[in-house]
Write a structure and sequence with these properties.
The chain has 11 helices and 9 strands. By secondary structure, the chain is of the alpha/beta class. The protein has a single domain, classed as Luciferase-like domain (TIM Barrel), CATH 3.20.20.30. Strands 1, 2, 3, 4, 5, 6, 7, 8 and 9 form a 9-stranded parallel beta sheet that branches. The radius of gyration is 19 Å and the shape is globular.
């Protein structure tokens, strides 16, 4: 099982120095993946620009989006951006795609709410794949939209799908699932993995790649750290739901307990688990590394 570390962009303060420090530590550590997700009206930097910097700062780790909110993007422009990242990283890009869980992401860019559908996502993915194959998807252009991706056919695509209908549709275009568990427990992850395996098999496809992730905080004040982070991050929830998440969501404990939790995810058949930090301190990378080494 591979382990990914997510950049701390959902907390304020991810400047040039901190980005360099986190990226250097992730690249040098026992991590296989550097991950980041997308959000509009928040502290986080824009994902494509951020990954351009990460592609230049790293040589080894996979760069994984978890996830890109497809309805806020033009599929043609995004295809060009992702192909560029694939070239800059020499094929180390892996793309998680979803329709998003917050309407304000769409409102912030004036996106059409009708595109927040899994069927629309599947159509947009097919448009991007055609572009990466060199096809002309827009009439009248003098040349196709380029550059060609480093990997033939384009980067690996994973679906940020949750429910049965979304997972079933994802089996038609995705290489697997890029999920997330709020509770950070095997009981929450197991049925999602089983659904994906069954759905991919019914579609006549090979076993899907199974990826999940969870918030983590280590040490004596772990729950306090988690509560501070989630209270800020979950600003779209009503106060009662936000307070419940602050008290129960994510993993809190010591290094040994984190190691045990990762082993449980591996036993479920996870191909990859992303650790999502709840503070911006670069030493968090080293603390997590102790659980993996």
């Amino acid at each position: 099982m591979k382990i990914g570390m997510t950049l701390p962009g959902m907390d304020p303060g991810l400047d040039r120095k901190r980005l360099f420090d986190w990226t250097r530590r992730i690249e040098a550590g026992p991590f296989d993946v550097l991950a980041f997700g997308e959000r509009m009206a928040f502290y986080n930097p824009e994902l494509v620009a951020l990954f351009g910097a990460c592609a230049a700062l790293t040589e080894r780790v996979v760069l994984r989006s978890t996830v890109i909110v497809m309805p806020i993007h033009s599929p043609v422009m995004l295809a060009k951006q992702l192909a560029t990242l694939d070239v800059l990283s020499e094929g180390r890009l892996s793309v998680g795609l979803g329709i998003g869980g917050r309407d304000e992401d769409l409102v912030a860019v004036g996106a059409d709410p009708a595109r927040k559908k899994n069927a629309a996502l599947a159509r947009d993915v097919e448009t991007m794949k055609r572009i990466w194959r060199g096809e002309a998807v827009v009439p009248g252009l003098l040349r196709p939209v380029e550059p060609k991706p480093f990997r033939a056919g384009g980067p690996e695509l994973l679906a940020g799908a949750m429910g049965p209908k979304a997972v079933r549709l994802a089996a038609s275009w995705a290489d697997g699932l890029c999920g997330f568990t709020w509770a950070a427990t095997p009981d929450e992850v197991a049925p999602v993995f089983e659904l994906a395996r069954r759905t991919w098999a019914e579609a006549g496809r090979e076993r899907p790649k199974l990826v999940t992730g969870f918030w983590f905080a280590l040490g004596a004040k772990a729950r306090e750290q988690m509560a501070t982070h989630l209270g800020r991050y979950m600003n779209w929830l009503d106060p009662a739901a936000r307070e419940a998440a602050q008290q129960h969501a994510g993993f809190t404990g010591d290094v040994r307990a984190l190691r045990d939790r990762l082993r449980q995810m591996e036993d479920l058949g996870a191909d990859e688990v992303h650790l999502v930090p709840t503070c911006g301190d670069p030493e968090e990378v080293e603390r997590a590394a102790d659980a993996i080494a």
